[in-house]
């Protein structure tokens, strides 16, 4: 199947239109016409080569929402016209303990990412959502609950599940004290989801500049990490801190904010964090952990949760040809919302 998208041809190059082929449908495949595609900070990191060499040309995008266009002979869960979604992965071994445990993101053989990974059967490079169509095996297709606004749902597929999974894993409930470091794409979803779970949420940011935005999302307020007095006063104040900062940073300033047995979970930055001071860990049995997206079942769960609680990411709709500008704005700093590409703006001709 011929399709068109936007690809990076090297780590320095701008994103440009790119014509390529999607595979012919296998018996368990679903072909999707993509309507909206979220712009994740990982897309930028990946095309820039920040996480290692990439198989260019590369079409990023792993927050994908669209409509089923056709299905393979053995597909039972989806039919033509269904509203569906695809997130950060498109395949896994389906046989190991992690896959059986519905945590395909931790597949022992490694999950297949939505873009930049070798397909498990053909070996060709997977290409993501900045395109008109995608073909994905049925098991990795999500359902968009009826009545949900498709144009605002895409960022749930990465920003949503990435923050929902640790909130669930660490048992956030009514009255839990949750801190969210950073108020970007991930951070703003962490606030909304934790608030919906009944938690008492505080945003932790460099300054109180985004206080109005934080409160509008349901947070109590902002704790400014540069305000030493406020940071000291907030010692032991949190059961869980979700750290969404996407770049290298020192986490030692945040660990004393945790109460005994509290955890700081890193979901933003991938890579070294600098030297960890074990003092707050030992004197308080505190933990520093990480978390990667969530399994397919849990991704469906967060979509259903958002539908039920009427939670949507804050989206700024852009045209496909505005992507390079959007990447620049992402690089310049956090915005308490997500860019979403209206794929109808990409002319197939
Ligand atoms: Zn992402
Ligand atoms: Zn597996």
Summed up:
With about 350 residues, the chain is an alpha/beta fold.
Task: Describe this entry's structure for a reader.
The protein has 349 residues and is α/β, with parallel strands linked by helices. The chain folds into two domains: 189 residues, Quinone Oxidoreductase, Chain A, domain 1 (Alpha-Beta Complex), CATH 3.90.180.10; 131 residues, NAD(P)-binding Rossmann-like Domain (Rossmann fold, 3-Layer(aba) Sandwich), CATH 3.40.50. It is built from nine helices and 17 strands. The strands form four sheets. Strands 3, 4, 5, 8, 9, 16 and 17 form a seven-stranded mixed sheet that branches. It has a six-stranded parallel sheet with strand order 12-11-10-13-14-15. Helix 3 packs across helix 4 and helix 3 crosses helix 8. The longest helix has 14 residues. The chain starts with a strand and ends in a 7-residue tail after the last strand. The relative contact order is 0.16. The mean pLDDT is 96.
Topology at a glance:
Layout: E1 2-8, E2 15-21, E3 29-39, H1 41-47, E4 64-71, E5 83-86, E6 89-91, H2 97-100, E7 112-113, E8 133-137, E9 142-143, H3 159-169, E10 177-181, H4 185-196, E11 200-205, H5 211-216, E12 221-224, H6 228-233, E13 238-243, E14 258-266, H7 279-282, E15 287-290, H8 296-309, E16 315-319, H9 323-332, E17 338-342
Parallel strand pairs: 10-11, 10-13, 11-12, 13-14, 14-15, 16-17
Antiparallel strand pairs: 1-2, 3-4, 3-8, 3-17, 4-5, 5-9, 6-7
Helix pairs in contact: 3-4, 3-8
The chain binds zinc ion (2 copies).
One zinc ion (ZN) binds at residues 92-93, 95-96, 98-99, 107-109.
């Amino acid at each position: 199947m011929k399709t068109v998208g936007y690809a990076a041809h090297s780590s320095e190059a701008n994103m440009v239109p790119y014509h390529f082929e999607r595979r012919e449908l296998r018996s368990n495949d679903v072909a999707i016409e993509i309507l909206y595609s979220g712009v994740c900070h990982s897309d930028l990191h990946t095309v820039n080569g920040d996480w290692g060499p990439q198989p260019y040309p590369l079409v990023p995008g792993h927050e994908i929402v669209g409509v089923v266009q056709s299905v393979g002979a053995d597909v039972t869960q989806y039919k033509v016209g269904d509203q569906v979604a695809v997130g950060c992965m498109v395949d896994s071994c389906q046989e190991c303990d992690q896959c059986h445990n519905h945590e395909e993101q931790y597949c022992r053989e490694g999950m297949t990412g939505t873009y930049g990974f070798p397909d498990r059967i053909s070996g060709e490079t997977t290409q993501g959502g900045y395109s008109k169509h995608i073909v994905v095996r049925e098991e990795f297709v999500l359902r968009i609950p009826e009545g949900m606004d498709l144009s605002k749902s895409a960022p749930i597929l990465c920003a949503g599940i990435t923050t929902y999974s640790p909130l669930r894993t660490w048992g956030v409930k009514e009255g839990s004290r949750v801190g969210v470091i950073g108020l970007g794409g991930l951070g703003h979803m962490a606030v909304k989801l934790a608030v919906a779970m009944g938690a008492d949420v505080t945003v932790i940011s460099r300054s109180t500049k985004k206080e109005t935005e934080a409160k509008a999302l349901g947070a109590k307020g902002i704790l400014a990490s540069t305000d030493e007095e406020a940071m000291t006063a907030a010692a032991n104040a949190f059961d869980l801190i979700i750290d969404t900062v996407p770049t290298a940073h020192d986490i030692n300033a945040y660990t004393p904010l945790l109460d005994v047995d509290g955890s700081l979970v890193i979901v933003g930055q991938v890579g070294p964090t600098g030297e960890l001071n074990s003092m707050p860990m030992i004197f308080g049995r505190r933990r520093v952990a990480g978390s990667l997206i969530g399994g397919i079942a849990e991704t469906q769960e967060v979509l259903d949760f958002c539908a039920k609680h009427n939670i949507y990411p804050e989206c700024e709709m852009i045209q496909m040809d505005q992507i390079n500008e959007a990447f620049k704005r992402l690089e310049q700093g956090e915005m308490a919302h997500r860019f979403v590409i209206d794929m109808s703006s990409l002319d197939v001709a």
